[in-house]
Design a protein that fits this description.
Radius of gyration: 28 Å
Strand order of the largest sheet: 1-5-3-4-2
Distance between the termini: 79 Å
Largest sheet: 5 strands, mixed
Number of helices: 19
Structural class: alpha/beta
Order of helices and strands: EEHHEEHHEHHHHHHEEHHHEEHHHHHH
């Protein structure tokens, strides 16, 4: 069957014939056209890239068939790896530890080298294309869309380890507890919610605690079955489920990772569950049932008493969401704000202009900071860069109690983070790099992370200007 596969061919390529891609998003612009050794040194200097961990995994599973092919761009008779650079570096270092000058790392790879017989002639299964855009589609799918995968939760990981025979006591407990939850006389939707993303961690934090085991009389047999001495265990479990989903107990005390981070706090919470709470849990579940026009019944317990808004969505078509209203009196800055909020598209059509938005976003960030510092009388040296301005405004806003340290975390990341999406290097690339193009989703995520900073900044400026006019 013919399809777009004419863009591709399957090959087994020797490691010695493969080249690292110097335009890989993990490399800053200054690494373009660097030598292989320089690219490798950059990679191994980043702890977040976990080169040693990957190398150990490669050696351990060397006997397994290659699961994921690397993606190779055949350009000017060079076989450049677009996807799989991290793996390629590991293989190259195992074959030749002299590629690094780091003595400890060199010794580490020499030791691994003794455990295998990989040579330069070792081959990797590869998908090869002469069309770079086709190759980049794989990058988009894996790194921007997470390969369309849905990660396993705690219960799913426990199920897997139990069925594989590798389960630890904690995982045996989770499976046994999940079975009890499934048997409870509460709506299935609640069972799925408390064992699903966003709630299961806090739920297990409570119920796995040693204090909870002691108070509730929980023991586990070698076969994974539970012995529970508390005759009201199931009822208390229902109370805990309702409290976790509502994020507070029936006395109004918060139930989250911050309030239940110590054994004594969990112990206090377990002891606080009384028989009266059993009826409260049943009533809470009952009043949370909602029937739609088709007569279908759903549970909305997680929305009750909630003061949090829905998470921001990158599906919007402009950088700035319509819910963000900044009152900017300075004409030019306000015009830029309006263009980013109302005019410049960031959707999936050909009319989207992410490069223009990226450039204007950086301009809006810098001139907003310049305007604020000028109005506050903060004098800067002429040669100070954007990162320095961000540091200066963060210090000033915190010291002047205009914003809290917590509210300034994200804007500070712009100045100091190197691998974060918010990194100053990314903002520079929006303007100065002729190769790097911002994605619409990354731009919107960056705005979402910095929106609170802009709101505080412009609210304060307006308040200050109004006070002067009033005076």
């Amino acid at each position: 069957m013919k399809s777009n596969n004419y863009h591709w061919r399957n090959e087994k390529i020797k490691i010695k014939d493969l080249y690292l891609w110097d335009e890989n998003a993990r490399f800053p612009d200054k690494y373009f056209n660097k030598t292989e050794k320089e690219l490798i040194e950059y990679f191994i200097s980043k702890k977040d890239f976990k080169i040693k961990e990957l190398a150990e995994a490669v050696i351990k599973d060397l006997d397994l068939p290659q699961l994921e092919k690397i993606v190779v761009y055949n350009y000017d008779e060079r076989l450049i790896v677009l996807e799989g650079n991290r793996r390629l570096i590991v293989y190259k270092l195992i074959i030749d530890p002299e590629l690094t000058d780091d003595k400890k790392l060199k010794d580490f790879f020499r030791t691994l080298r003794l455990k295998n017989n990989i040579t330069d002639d070792y081959v990797l299964e590869s998908l090869v294309t002469q069309n770079k855009d086709q190759g980049l589609r794989y990058i988009d799918r894996k790194h921007l869309q997470s390969n369309n995968q849905v990660n396993w939760g705690d219960t799913e990981r426990a199920h897997y380890n139990v069925r594989r025979g590798n389960a630890k006591k904690q995982e045996l407990f989770k499976i046994a507890l999940a079975k009890i939850i499934k048997s409870l006389n509460i709506p299935e939707q609640l069972k799925e919610q408390v064992l699903g993303y966003g709630y299961v961690t806090n739920f297990y934090r409570i119920i796995e605690n040693k204090a909870a085991w002691k108070i509730l009389g929980i023991e586990i047999n070698s076969d994974g079955s539970l012995i529970i001495k508390d005759k009201n265990f199931n009822k208390k479990l229902e109370v805990i489920i309702v409290n976790v989903l509502k994020k507070h107990d029936f006395n109004g005390n918060k139930i989250d990772s911050r309030t239940l981070n110590k054994n004594e706090e969990i112990e206090k919470y377990i002891y606080s569950i009384k028989n009266d709470d059993f009826n409260k849990a049943e009533k809470e579940i009952s009043k949370s049932k909602v029937t739609n026009l088709l007569g279908e019944e759903t549970i909305q317990i997680t929305k009750i008493d909630s003061i949090r808004s829905n998470p921001k969505s990158t599906t919007r078509i402009y950088l700035i969401p319509k819910t963000c209203v900044l009152n900017i009196k300075e004409t030019k800055i306000n015009n830029i704000y309006c263009e980013l909020r109302n005019d410049l598209l960031l959707d999936d059509t050909n009319k989207a202009v992410p490069n223009a938005v990226g450039v204007l976003f950086r301009v809006f960030l810098e001139i907003s900071i310049d305007f604020f510092l000028e109005k506050e009388g903060v004098i800067l040296k002429n040669d100070i860069k954007l990162a320095g301005k961000i540091t200066k405004i963060s210090e000033h806003m915190e010291n002047s109690k205009i914003a809290t340290k917590k509210q300034l975390i994200n804007i500070r990341k712009v100045a100091i983070a190197k691998t974060s999406l918010l990194s100053i290097d990314n903002f520079h690339d929006y303007v100065h790099s002729y190769k790097t193009q911002p994605s619409s989703s990354d731009l919107k995520l960056n705005w979402d992370n910095l929106q609170e900073f802009f709101e505080i900044l412009w609210k304060y400026i307006n308040k200050k200007l109004f006070s002067k006019i009033k005076a």
